[in-house]
Design goal:
13% of the residues lie in helices and 41% in strands. The chain is mostly beta strands and 407 residues long.
């Protein structure tokens, strides 16, 4: 090979290597140092555009679900194939959706900003979306944001990621604890004079807490209304345990000097939060979900253990003014009724059974819709009626279901 040809070949190889390498390192002096992107909310879940690096160094754009409660990269099967990801073995046992580990993790960029993928593990999931009912092909995990500052500006619907030290943070200082391996962070919150450690989980539409914690609150306030079963923002994915959760409203949730009011929370078995605490820096009694976060602009500096909060407009009321059904999105894009919410031992909806397939809500075809669209269609003014078309044992039936103020 002549010297000029050798130089051209080495230059081409370097360009290809840099194209892939920049997506795998946290510090890239040749690229931008900050990126701000718009996002949309679906079932309170933040969906943003992410670029992933193919084996040849080219980029593949995909809609990503921003999830600060999960350290693993989740990729749907079709996207995994495009990225050349190969399966390495089985994923976690006992999960609702089949999943396998991948042998490698692709590089990631957000608005041209390279994210640090070192140490991140990837799971491949079946179907055309990252998880049933979520309008995204991939997630953006907590671990990919660990080494950068990021701003979750819910009121403005913008996500900003920047290298540390680029700008002065703004907002009320709320210290946090950070797991340096997973990127999950937690804060001290207060309810009824009690301070508790809670994770900050953008991936969850609602706020979940330990039933031990909820039990203490209810013993002091037996007048707080409650129901059995997850609805609205509390309805995550229709996991079996959601149908037995205790749903209540907190008059006030304190975050430092800031407050969120009339917050729906779901109380679940302590064992769930023992598992969740394996991902956090210290044991937590639950996590603050997006039904609270949507009212704030939240800036993080995890390297210093700091978050900065600014209150925006209060979230619109009516999150739990809804038809009392716990729903489970399925891999075939249908929705199953996982359970019917009960109050005082009585079902909140008559004529619907667990196991029914929800086909239509008024004019909305549930099959193929997102979780956010289906849940929103079940909301309304208490007492208003929705026409539900269901499938049961091969037969279609129509039920008039009334909106209730739950719990």
């Amino acid at each position: 090979m002549t010297r000029p040809r050798m130089i051209r070949a080495l230059t081409a190889a370097a360009v290809l290597w840099l194209g892939a390498g920049r997506a795998a390192t946290a510090q890239d002096p040749a690229g931008p140092r900050t990126a701000t992107l718009p996002f949309v909310l679906d079932h309170n879940r933040m969906i943003v555009e992410l670029q992933l690096v193919r084996p040849d160094g080219t980029l593949r754009s995909a809609q990503a679900w921003v999830d600060t409660g999960n350290q693993h990269l989740l990729v749907c099967k079709q996207l995994a194939q495009e990225l050349g990801l190969e399966a390495a073995g089985t994923g976690e046992e006992g999960t609702q959706v089949a999943q396998v580990w991948a042998t490698t993790t692709p590089g990631m960029r957000l608005g041209g900003l390279s994210l640090d993928t070192a140490g991140i593990r990837t799971k491949i999931l079946p179907g055309a979306s990252v998880l049933p009912g979520v309008p995204a092909e991939v997630n953006l995990p907590s671990s990919a944001l660990l080494h950068d500052r990021f701003v979750l500006d819910y009121p403005a619907r913008r996500l900003t990621v920047a290298r540390p030290g680029l700008s002065k943070p703004r907002g009320t200082v709320i210290p946090c604890q950070v797991n340096a391996s997973t990127g999950l962070f937690q804060i001290a919150a207060s309810v009824d004079g009690e301070t508790v450690q809670l994770g900050v989980d953008t991936g969850s539409a609602g706020t979940w807490v330990s039933n031990l914690l909820l039990g203490r609150w209810q013993s002091r306030h037996p007048d707080w209304p409650h129901a059995i079963g997850a609805v609205g923002s509390a309805n995550f994915f229709g996991f079996g345990f959601e149908t037995g959760g205790v749903l209540t409203r907190l008059p006030v949730l304190g975050i430092g000097p800031l407050t969120a009011r009339d917050i729906g929370v779901l109380g679940l078995d302590q064992s769930l939060f023992d598992w969740y605490s394996g991902k956090t820096a210290a044991p937590v009694a639950g996590f603050v979900g997006a039904n609270v976060l949507v009212g704030f602009r939240i800036e993080t500096d995890l390297s210093r253990g700091m978050t900065y909060w600014e209150a925006g407009p209060a979230p619109p009321p009516g999150d739990l003014d809804i038809v009392g059904l716990t729903l489970r999105p399925e891999a075939d894009r249908s929705f199953t009724v996982a359970g019917v919410v009960t109050r005082d031992g009585k079902p909140a909806v008559a004529g619907v059974q667990a196991g029914d397939t929800l086909l239509r809500i008024d004019t909305l075809d549930a099959t193929g819709a997102t979780m956010g669209a289906v849940v929103a269609a079940l909301r309304g003014t208490p007492g208003a009626a929705h026409s539900l078309v269901l499938a049961r044992a091969g037969t279609q039936l129509t039920v008039e279901a009334r909106v209730a103020r739950l719990p």
